[in-house]
Structures
1.
Amino acid sequence: MIGIVILWYVVFAYIPMFGLIVSFQKFNFSKGYFKSEFIGLTNFKLLFSDKYFRQALKNTFVISGLRILFQFPAPIIFALILNEIRSKKYRSVVQTVTYIPHFFSWIIMSGLVMMILSPDRGLVNLLLEKMGQPQIHFLSSVKWFRTVIVTTDLLKEIGWNSIIFIAAIAGINHTLYESATIDGANRRQLLWHVTIPSIAPVISIMFILYVGNVFGQGFDQLFNLYNPVVFEKGDILATYIIRTLREQPNLGVQAAAGFINSLICLAFLLFSNWLVRRSGQESIY
Amino acid sequence: MMIKQKAGISDVFIVIITGILLIVTIIPIWQMLVIAFSSPDHYSADPYHFVPRGFSLAIFAELLSSTRILRSISISVLVVCVGWFGGIVLTGMGAYALNKLNKYRIPGRKILFKMIIFTMFFNGGIIPMFLWFRNIQITDTLFSLFLPTLINTFYLFLMKNYFSSIPEALEEAATIDGYNHFQILFKIIFPISKPVIAAVSLFLIVQYWNDYYFAMLFLNDTKLYPLGLILRNAVIDRQMIVQTVIGDQGQLSSEQYNMALVIVSLVPIFMIYPFIQKYFVTGIMVGAIKE
């Protein structure tokens, strides 16, 4: 049984990993892995001399940073708000509806985002027009693009990402609330002194996981929402690789860019895993 | 859990915040429905697409009479079925075997675990994969769409953790009855592991159904394109579906076609959604925090 699983890992994970040697080669299709000429770090030097690569590297960090800043806390706040809803029916409606967009692909989401934000016929711009404001070209505006990126992904995932915090809140011992109430705690005090401290361990684990994973994310969204006008704000390493692969294929250079991208993800995953261990939790992986 | 108190400022705040979130989520979906189900005349007359007028299935009829769309739907269905089935079986076998390796303390298991986990931390990226697939000649075949994502290490550990919580006695009884490992896995363990199988199934089905990435990279033959890639070409690359698929029906708007195509692609997801919703929490919780 394990044989076929190991075989799969060798063929689809380890052999492609070995294929990273092309990032040190002047790769030639007819010569293949073994006969292409080794050129040391030339591909990497070429990359760093490309200003679009440096831009993509910077964007990868900036956009990941923005996601950590805004998209990480949003589901926690949302879960806390949900917990305060008194009507069970309304709460389950809010949950069911906000889970839905998680299952939309970014192609579908982009279709909807383009529809809503369209300069001429989009709802947002029609509203702006009604209020006497000038039109905004959200998706081709250098100023607005990152806001759109963070906001749309936040709205898409807020429901789904809140599930784990909702489960954590549901697991809090009821007697804590009862005794706090007897001591005269009001609603706000219950929130600050019972609910939030009780879910703090989950929050810290999820934070570490989020930081570990955020650098590997975002390709689907950006690849389907961006356009050449906003490359300077939205081109990340993953999209840079596919974009250059289609425009000017030079497999050695693009493999090198992929190598750097994988190394960044690896570094942050190792760092976050180390943090989990240090915080006394059993490590995630 | 909430202790009865009078409705106050905070309740108003809560309703406003959640209300805004509901509206922001529902409006685009609603507009999409209105656009796709309107007759072309009403569509062009009303810029807001807010109030449904002139119900019409004309767009859908056109869409579903296109052989290119129908072919891509059947390819997607095929990839989903094979990928889902293969993924569940292979992941289940891996999960079962890893537990057994642990139980019998088979030498080399630790290094194997580390090697498997390492693939979650690091991968070769897309270029080496592309070259390797060219070498073994699975580019331009449907194999390239499901083979590379058949096993997801996260789901593998999700299942492994779930299986390890199943009482040993069940398996021992089955062994005495003469069951082999395959029979134990598929006849004993799978039937009682519904929550985790449902959760992984959901993830796999959605992933294969929505995929366009591998198709975009590995397929040259447009006849093999799955629905995801057709959808991308229509919606994102603005290849006017009116011209490329339907022919010369100029008065019908491409936006209507795109939205109708989006709705078609959402049907299966909404079909499985109600059945699987109750397993969401298991799916996320079992693997996220190992205790």
2.
Amino acid sequence: MSQVAAMSHAVEPAESPLTPESWGKLGMWLFLAGDAMSFGCLIVGYGILRHASTKWPVPAQVLGINLTAFMTFLLIVSSVWMVLALAAIQENNKARFNKFLGLTILGGATFLGCQAYEWTHLLSERLPELGIYFSNNLFATTFFVLTGFHGMHVTGGVIYNTCVLAAVNRGRYQAKHVEIAGLYWHFVDLVWILIFTFVYLL
Amino acid sequence: MTTEAHSTSAYIKIFWILLVLTIIEVAIVYLGLPRMLLVALLVIFAVWKAALVAMHFMHLKFEKKTLSIVAIIPFILCVFLILMLLPDIYSR
């Protein structure tokens, strides 16, 4: 890493200690920092509302955590597939890269399928049984806002990764672009780890 | 390339740690621990897992300091947000 950086930056005498190795990576990190603040505000808001509410159902009993534990597993595995895809493209192994990025996309799509199933089940059966509705209950509101916002990020990630897969195979993208896409995908995984704990387990 | 940090076996190792931590998290929910202990444990595990993902999968551990500074700012602001909201919670 440092050797590559030293080579590519040898011509920039005005470099400060904080000059990033890659502007693309810095850009993605800046976006993720902003995104983290959005998620941070939603999670903190959720915490405040929950703390202030006198009646709050036990999430594990209403939502069920077995399917969600599997979804967490899916995102972690797809994150690993993403780093393996990155390792493969860095070694110029196209076939291995295609396999692992394909699996990453498949993992993300399966996650979305599980979430669609979960939402359908909750909205049509589980919540009406308990007399809880999206519009009149903070538990339901915060749940759908948080998981929905995250689900949109997964959707975006699946589309992003699909574009990266296509662009690499057409020779437009190299390993550095895959690494930047990976940052986004791991961030989505990281946020789900927090949501899984705070919304489902606590 | 720093071969050690980016090697496949290192990634797989992190995967197993994440998997075990997730299983422990789900297990302790079923244990019926006291509420405060449960909350403390789950928050520690969640932050630990998030840090593992950021450090190893997002390579933060092996990057220049610039990216770490960018990454840490939202967390500082979120702590600040919680502090600002504390009066609302405790003046109730």
